Amino acid sequence: MHRTCVLQSLDEAHQCDLYRKGLRPRLRRRLMSGRPRYQVPAGFIARGWRYEVEATTSGQRSLIQQHFGARRFAHNWALAEVKANLNARSTDPSVQPLPWDLPSLRRAWNQAKNQVAPWWPCCSKEAYASGIADLVTGLHNWTASKNGRRAGRPVGFPRFKARGRDHGRVRFCTGAMRLESDRRHLILPVIGRLRCKENTRSLQRLLVKEQGRVLSMTLSEHGGRQFVSVSAIVVHTQRGPSEPDARCGIDLGIGREWAVVAHADGTIERTAHPAPWAGVQDERRRAARRASRRIVGSRGHHHARTKLAALDRRAANLRRESVHALTSALARRYGTIVVEDLDVSAMARGMGRRAFRRTVHQAGIGVVRPVLAYKTRWAGGQLVVADRWFASSRIHHGCGGYHARLRLQDQVWVCPRCGERVDRNANAALNLRDWTGPVTDRDVQRGGVAAPVPFVGDHGGQACTQVQACEAL
Ligand SMILES: [Zn+2]
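^ Those are the sequences you sent over. The predicted structure of the assembly is below.
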């Protein structure tokens, strides 16, 4: 249904989702038809790049903080309007409902801004628009969750943002934004020139050759560092996997072996646990204790928090690296990749102790499937998700013997039928590789998520997700 889904800008992108899901069909058609249409051109895909940046002039730091604050202010203002309207309607049903869509709320903001925020010209209008857009997303998620249209844990009603609770971010969809030709700087509207800590070559050369176009740039702050996520459409040439007819199976685990891959030629590849947690765990515990003993708001507290953020960032980076290394290599090689349908949160719940639950989440096995889902699609391959109840660990791949009483800690078991010693993980990977069960649930087969989101790009906003969703469905 989304070949024809269209987006003018990223705002539009998530509006289109709102209209699609939230409104009555006739109203939906009416609202959709009146909008200018832009289609991600054939042969293009939407992708994200993320660069760490730093200010180049002394005034920029405070300007960036102002923009974060402006975004928060507009969000809170719009939320207050929505709440006031809801309250008014609960007492007097004849009050007109306030539409919860971006154009209406932006119009209301533009009418009110001279009164409520006379300082508004200091910041880019995109700062206010991005705050309101995120509120609209939040409201939409809440209604979808309430009405059972949204999977996952329940989503609450949007809350007012405070500086301490909400990490700073602002998305620019229009205005003078570009990458500099020195491949070391980028330009944001109003904020100006920022230095990238990483070479921007991979994106910049596509833009120069007119093989890509920037849709939006999001400036955000995490753990005291600033990042710019660039969302762009780029030319996509599908090379096809190098072994289009071959299959491989992946068994993911939380033990010593993180991923065990059964290749088409029968070889078994074992990848050790990325173990970012084990490496930084002790240090992190110490840093967290130190932070908890400092007075909130003090310089010491700030230092301890910075240290903690650095450790978390390192663990996340290591984990991301191993996920991408594994998935890229497989997606380029195989026409069909089989993974199991893991319920990671159920796994974690079943683990009991908090330390065990933590290992489940720290292993990052839940992200392998969504990442594979979009990478296989880009490479021209296919991702097959085996049935959740397929006992890949308990069936002997050699003879089909079934070991009913396999325990979690049994790494090697003896097949009750042929008496052979079986390596648990390698056996499971082989079973998955040769899995031929029915492929039923389309949502699961797509990666089990409504919109596979790449690691790179903007996670804070709706933008990337929606672009992905539009080109995916
Ligand atoms: Zn056997």
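Residues 1-37, 448-473 have pLDDT under 50 and may be disordered. The two ends are 6 Å apart (CA to CA).

Shout if you want it in another format.
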